[in-house]
Amino acid sequence: MLDGLKMEENFQSAIETSASFSSLLGRAVSPKSVCEGCQRVISDRFLLRLNDSFWHEQCVQCASCKEPLETTCFYRDKKLYCKYHYEK
Domains of the chain by range and CATH? Predict the structure, then answer.
């Protein structure tokens, strides 16, 4: 089991080295999506797109009460709100 983890680490470093090498050659590197909520790169398998911005699934929460927004959300000033806090 540990050998498999080590192999994945080596594989990941090979990909990173390859990406660095290709950027030295002038090849375009695909842009990374940045989460609007936390400003970190989204490396998750899934991401959410809301109003032309990308979000981690766990970052989709009300800016006031921090409750997860699972069915609906309201957007103002680059922040997400539940219906209750949006109307205030």
Answer: 33-87 (2.10.110.10)
> What's the predicted TM-score (pTM) here?
0.58
Say how far apart CA 50 and CA 74 lie, in whole Å.
Answer: 10
Residue 34, pLDDT score:
92
Cβ(80)–Cβ(57) under 8 Å?
A: no
For 24-58, write each residue's pLDDT tens digit: 444 444 568 899 989 999 988 877 888 888 989 88
In sequence order, which residues have a C-beta less than 8 Å from that of residue 72 and are 6 or more positions away? 83
